[in-house]
Design a protein that fits this description.
The chain is an all-alpha fold. It has a domain of 75 residues. It has 9 helices and no strands. α2 packs antiparallel against α5, α5 crosses α7 and α6 packs antiparallel against α7. The two termini are 24 Å apart.
């Protein structure tokens, strides 16, 4: 619950389009409503709804609730899997309001860039701090939603000053380049030791053929994590993430 509260406060600070005082602009209610919906999805996990659903094995309603309040194993997607993307969407959707608000306050471009960089740094540090609460040393990981938003925030902020055409082109380049990078990275061979990376050897969710480039803990992102995360002090070398 502490992490949820911190997340809500931080995301609200990043994305809130409201101003205060005489002539203040009212909040964008749809954005607040969407943020509230995402927070409800987060609470579903805290409330252990999938465990509650086990008491009603024949209920379609509870099967739907259970599926959408926890992550899928690997293939497919549930509402719970969309929490992090939803918060990223919220930040992007609110960015034009934030930029317009700061322009009305007379801030220069570089003042706004400096503020964005400072906010991004705070989000990164806060995300790492939250992931380190139960560790004996700082747990340098970048999977936390706050950290991921912070890592991309300055780039997003700068993109907010470009034309729509540039933004669409940038999105296309990112998606195509990311897909191509995965496709070009060597797929795991028949002798790949899946057990070493926390995946059963004959796991039903492993892909075959071309799609094997996206298998859990054997793809490009996994290889990057193994290299990058081990550059930081750790209690034990990073080998894999249980979630992939």
């Amino acid at each position: 619950m502490v992490e949820s509260a911190q997340l809500e406060a931080s995301i609200g600070a990043v994305s809130a389009p409201a101003e205060h005082g005489p002539g203040a602009i009212t909040r964008l209610v749809s954005l607040d409503a969407f943020r509230g919906l995402v927070m409800v999805l987060m609470l579903g996990e805290v409330m252990r709804l999938p465990q509650v659903a086990q008491a009603f094995p024949h209920s379609l309603f509870w099967r739907v609730i259970a599926f959408n309040t926890e992550h899928v194993e690997w293939q497919g997607c549930s509402l719970h899997d969309l929490i992090q993307p939803a918060f990223s969407f919220l930040v992007g959707a609110a960015l034009p309001f934030s930029i317009a608000s700061r322009k009305r306050k007379g801030q220069s471009f570089w003042q706004m860039v400096g503020h964005a960089a400072w906010r991004a740094l705070l989000l990164i540090v806060l995300g790492i701090f939250l992931r380190s609460l139960h560790s004996r040393q700082t747990y340098f990981t970048f999977e936390d939603t706050l950290t991921q938003i912070g890592l991309g925030y300055v780039f997003l902020f700068l993109l907010g000053f470009t034309r729509v055409r540039t933004q669409v082109l940038t999105l296309a380049v990112i998606l195509i380049a990311f897909w191509a990078a995965f496709a070009l990275y060597p797929a795991p061979g028949s002798g790949f030791d899946y057990a070493r990376v926390g995946v059963p050897q004959n796991w039903e969710h492993n892909y075959t053929g071309f799609l094997a480039h996206w298998n859990k803990n054997s793809n490009l992102s996994w290889a990057f994590d193994v290299w990058f995360l081990n550059l930081f002090p750790r209690e034990q070398p990073f080998v894999f993430n249980e979630g992939g």
